[in-house]
Specification:
The complex is a heterodimer of chains A (368) and B (200). Chain A is an alpha/beta fold. Chain A has 10 helices and 15 strands. In chain A, strand 14 and strand 15 (360-366) form a beta hairpin. Classes of the chains: A alpha/beta (368), B alpha/beta (200). The structure holds adenosine-5'-triphosphate, magnesium ion and zinc ion.
Chain lengths: 368, 200
């Protein structure tokens, strides 16, 4: 799949950015704080409806009261158009081929991306929440059933936790709790099942990529870690454990197990990478994981996602940079942000390059 | 809004905006439409709103909206009195009745169990439903709460209460879009959902 055009309005520091003609390889250059990362983030947002911010409001350009991102897409021979608009007010408007789409789950997945960024290191070092988020965004882009189950699970969980949080005031009605637990098990088991299947595929692709980078010296793996012992019939195991934990959940006022408590462990030579990998090893691990994400999407929908590369060559010497770029050469579309654009241009002589300044296009030099 | 230095107009727009499905733009359009209309027409509208508000009550048996209590459905001799369909809102009765596929009685529970909105079973007409099942000769209860999380929880909760009473409990088939509400489902979908109901 390829993004053929991009129009960004009031997104973060970008006032108006019109890129009517995108290429296979697109280099985005500019000074610090000019809006290069924000440009990549606008593509990421157009695809996943996610930002690194807690609220959409934070992504509205200071002083403005809405933002919008539009993109033209070529996907398996078909032309599509995507549009997302936030505000004024708090409503999000989604459009697909000009038609309003009411549900996020009918929109996400139309444009699929893998984002390589500096802060990816948090996947290894950070909290389980960050790893769950990465898995959710990845799988949701290729599996709408997953996104729907996840949304349902989240909604049921919010109701149940509300009941539990008020348990100290008013003992919750056991039958009501059970009515929510039943739905929690149903949607939760579905979420876990799909995540576990994804983790199996990802682990293999992850190890392969990592072997290629580490010259076969290290083995890497991923392991989905469920917050309860999930053997046999998942739904039954989840239900049984919830039943057992009910008094504890009432005492603590919250739901103690389920996909919202699960984790995914990064391992290197069998040990948890969070504790046993060096800085450089952690960098290579997250890089390998991102490549595994790419393979996962490619395998799931038989189509290549769009690749966003935000200064991933940072800290690498020339040989490694060249080696890393070779991974990307066969991919149909790349957006590359780099402070060393001249060097990237030498590697990709056919690339289009866009210079950003103050959140707008400074000039567009397109090579033919 | 400087463009309307007119308190009564702003008040009218604000009142209209409170209604479901009416945004600020529609509220403005309606307000201007009313102001352009003949005074007699506006009086007719205001009168009918007041009249309906005064005459229409909830049926003391099924909580449908009605001028005569009990309502026409509850007193009809042509309905199957061994079947009760449980719905969230009076609006849902209209949607289901229009399909013609259901010939039993109704019971409106006035909402769904929704902890996030602070609504528990005791806030709904569930006790009244259980009393009806005990008194009347009911053989089957069809639960037609909305297919969203709260509606689903209500269905599970009701089936747990009703099944021990020896009454068959079924759920409207999942022909409807998830998260949708009954009043927006079309008649064909609803009729299919009634015919394909599954036992709980
Ligand atoms: N909602 C917003 N409104 C206006 N500016 C914003 C908003 N959110 C973020 N910014 C600003 O956008 C600026 C540009 O950010 P961006 O991360 O895109 O820079 P960059 O070009 O990638 O720089 P670097 O080369 O340092 O990575 C930042 O200074 C940031 O404060
Ligand atoms: Mg940046
Ligand atoms: Zn009645």
């Amino acid at each position: 799949m390829r993004l053929s055009s991009l129009f960004v309005h009031n997104f973060k520091n970008i006032g108006e950015l019109d890129l009517p003609q995108l290429s296979g390889v697109n280099i985005i250059t500019g000074r610090n704080a000019s809006g290069k990362t924000n440009t990549l983030q606008s593509i990421y947002f157009l695809s996943t409806l996610s930002t690194q911010f807690k609220t959409y409001q934070q992504a509205v350009r200071f002083g403005a009261d809405f933002f919008s991102v539009k993109g033209g897409l070529e996907s398996s021979g078909a032309q599509k158009s995507l549009e997302v608009r936030y505000g004024p007010g708090r409503d999000v408007k989604l459009k697909l081929n000009g038609n309003t789409v009411a549900k996020k789950s009918d929109y996400i997945g139309e444009c699929r991306v893998v984002n390589f960024a500096f802060e990816d290191i948090d996947l290894v070092r950070g909290t389980p929440g960050e790893r769950r988020r990465a898995l959710n965004i990845l799988i949701s882009q290729v599996n709408r059933g997953y996104l729907k189950s996840l949304q349902k699970y989240t909604a049921v969980l919010a109701h149940k936790n509300k009941l539990l949080s008020e348990a100290f005031k008013k003992r919750p009605d056991a039958a009501v709790l059970e009515a929510f637990n039943e739905q929690l098990c149903e949607s939760g088991a579905e979420v876990i099942k799909i995540r576990k299947e994804a983790a199996v595929f990802l682990s293999q692709a992850f190890d392969l990529a990592h072997k290629r980078i580490s010259l076969g010296l290290e083995s890497a793996s991923l392991e989905y870690k469920c917050s309860f012992e999930c053997v046999g019939d998942l739904k039954a195991a989840f239900a049984a454990k919830l039943k057992e934990l009910l008094p504890a959940e009432i005492a603590r006022g919250t739901t103690l197990i389920g996909p919202h408590k699960d984790d995914m462990l990064f391992k290197i030579n069998g040990r948890e990478a969070k504790y046993y990998a060096s800085d450089g090893q952690q960098r290579t691990l997250v890089f390998s994981f991102k490549l595994a994400e790419y393979r996962y999407m490619q395998d799931a929908v038989k189509d290549d996602p769009v690749i966003l590369l935000d200064d991933v060559f940072y800290e690498l010497d020339a040989d490694r940079k060249a080696a890393v770029l070779e991974f990307f050469r066969p991919m149909p579309q790349l957006f590359i942000v780099s402070l060393e654009a001249d060097w990237v241009k030498k590697v990709f002589p056919d690339a289009a390059s866009f210079r950003i300044s103050g959140g707008a296009l400074q000039d567009a030099l397109q090579k033919e | 809004m400087e463009s309307y230095n007119n308190a009564s107009l702003i008040k009218l727009i604000n009142e209209l905006e409170k209604m479901p499905g009416i945004g600020p733009k529609t509220a403005q359009r309606l307000a201007f439409y009313l102001l352009k209309s003949e005074k007699a027409d506006v009086e007719k509208l205001a009168g009918s709103i007041l009249e309906a508000k005064e005459k229409i009550k909830y049926c003391s048996v099924c909580f449908n909206m009605t001028e005569i209590d009990p309502c026409a459905i509850c007193t009809s001799l042509r309905r199957d009195r061994s079947l009760i369909c449980v719905v969230e809102e009076p609006m849902d009765i209209v949607a289901l009745d229009n399909t013609g596929a259901f010939k039993g009685l109704f019971h409106v529970i006035m909402g769904s169990i929704s902890p996030l909105d602070g609504i528990g079973p005791e806030d709904l007409k569930i006790r009244e439903l259980l009393i009806r099942i005990g008194k009347e000769n009911i053989k089957e209860v069809i639960i037609a709460t909305n297919p969203d999380v709260a509606g689903e929880a209500t269905a599970i909760y009701l089936s747990k209460l009703i099944k021990p009473l020896g009454v068959k409990v079924s759920r409207l088939a999942q022909g409807m879009p998830m998260g949708g509400s009954l009043e927006y489902a079309d008649e064909v979908t609803l009729a299919r959902a009634i015919e394909g109901r599954r036992e709980l």
